[in-house]
Specification:
The protein has 426 residues and is an alpha/beta fold. 20% of the residues lie in helices and 23% in strands. The relative contact order is 0.11.
């Protein structure tokens, strides 16, 4: 079964907590703090597997969680890092965050490996918090939380040329005649239920990958037929080849068919047809009635719009090399790099009051922790008067000062925010 769209839950590993302990040895009655650091949580990593061509495995398992880091131990022993979780996907998989719909990564290279979400950092043990005035700290950092998101995986097939057109116009037959692909062929609609790929070589030795993209009918962009499932595969193709039944054997107008398919692609994503070159493959010329429509197609597309129209018969192998030569010439005019969807997802950290914690770890000694606070400390220079003023303003605006007062802080008490320590005064 071919599956090219799934929704899954990802969570990177939580960092291990730092340890609180003190050196206890014979003849060392007052040993200092020796609590070790917690291990890093496991990353969520995606890897392109060349032997994989569908997302069907994700239909049976929807939740993926990396291993948490181990807590630190006494004697300055570091907790073990959590094991990374490596998830294998087909080439051409695009990962999007569900809520925003933004691209996290586009895995388009064979063997490519990318960290999608990093594990939480390990917390520092109490060995790091000793100072000349506080030589026996009884607290340690908690490990950082892992990242957790619902994401979608979309498989957008990587092909140079995409064959589009109504069912039964001969796309599968054409692909089987010009490539090494062996698609299922029969005289009924929706014989093809999954995209088929084939490597094509014309008489000049130029090779390119061609895909038969099924299921496009009127209303495809709204989910009618199979089109909504497979329109995404058109996005990566460099050239679109409209295969049309020029004979009108099912009482259809070939010109209207091409315009209908174009409108469905445009409705799905207006950018697809904006820059992609197109070629018309007017098929079934072995039927005499087809030639009545060839001139009309050439006039409308070739003469007025510069889109090549090539009469062919896929069944009798007539004029197929001319079609391949035309496609090869068009391919030379487009960039050779793969079409890649640029990542535009950025994590949004909530640095509101609910995103930090305040703990009175000792009498008159308060610990402030939280993602927003840690980020602020990282990009603020407290050595300058301006930077320190910004720091004080941040603490008040984010409710940290108010929360400290609610926790019972008094003037002269000590506040520690990660590596920063200061005395509290109104």
């Amino acid at each position: 079964m071919f599956v090219d769209y799934v929704k899954i839950f990802l969570k990177s590993g939580k960092g291990g907590d730092g340890h609180v302990s003190f050196r206890r040895e014979k003849y060392v009655p007052n040993g200092g703090p020796d609590g070790g650091d917690g291990g890093r949580g496991g990353h969520i990593i995606f890897e392109v597997d060349p032997g994989c061509n569908t997302l069907i495995d994700f239909r049976h398992k929807r939740h993926y969680k990396a291993q948490p880091g181990e807590a630190g131990m006494k004697k300055r022993c570091h907790g073990k890092d959590g094991q990374d979780l490596v998830i294998k996907v087909p080439q051409g998989t695009v990962i999007r965050e569900v809520e925003s719909g933004k691209v996290i990564a586009d895995l388009h290279k064979i063997g490519e490996q990318k960290i999608i979400f990093r594990g939480g950092r390990g917390g520092k043990g109490n060995q790091h918090f000793a100072t000349p005035t506080r030589q026996a700290p009884k607290y340690a950092e908690k490990g950082g939380d892992g990242k957790e998101y619902w994401v979608t995986l979309e498989l957008k097939m990587i092909a140079d040329v995409g064959l589009v057109g109504f069912p039964n116009v001969g796309k599968s037959t054409l692909l089987s005649m010009v490539s090494n692909a062996q698609p299922k062929i029969a005289n009924y609609h929706f014989t093809t239920l999954a995209p088929n790929l084939g490597v094509v070589s014309n008489k000049y030795g130029k090779k390119f990958v061609m895909a038969d993209i099924p299921g496009l009918i009127e209303g495809a962009s709204e989910g009618v037929g199979l089109g909504h499932d497979f329109l995404r595969h058109v996005e990566r193709t460099k050239v679109i080849v409209h295969v049309v039944d020029a004979s009108g054997s099912e009482s259809r107008d070939p010109l209207e068919d091409i315009l209908t398919i174009s409108s469905e692609i445009d409705a799905y994503n207006p950018e697809i047809l904006k820059d992609k070159p197109q070629v018309i493959a007017a098929n079934k010329t072995d039927i005499p009635e087809a030639w009545d429509n060839i001139d009309k197609l050439k006039k409308y597309f070739e003469e007025d719009r510069g889109i090549p129209v090539v009469p062919i018969s896929a069944v009798s192998n007539d004029n197929l090399q001319v079609l391949l030569e035309t496609i090869g010439n068009v391919l030379q005019t487009v960039p050779q790099e793969d079409i890649v969807f640029e990542a535009d997802f950025e994590e949004v950290f909530d640095d509101s009051k609910s995103s930090f914690t305040i703990t009175e770890v000792e009498d008159g000694y308060f610990l402030v922790e939280g993602v927003g606070v840690e980020k602020m400390i990282g990009y603020t220079s407290l050595d300058s008067e301006k930077g320190f003023a910004f720091f004080q303003k941040y603490l008040r605006e984010k409710g940290i000062i108010e929360a400290l007062e609610e926790a019972g802080i008094q003037e002269g008490d000590t506040v520690r925010i990660y590596n920063l320590e200061f005395d509290y005064y109104k």
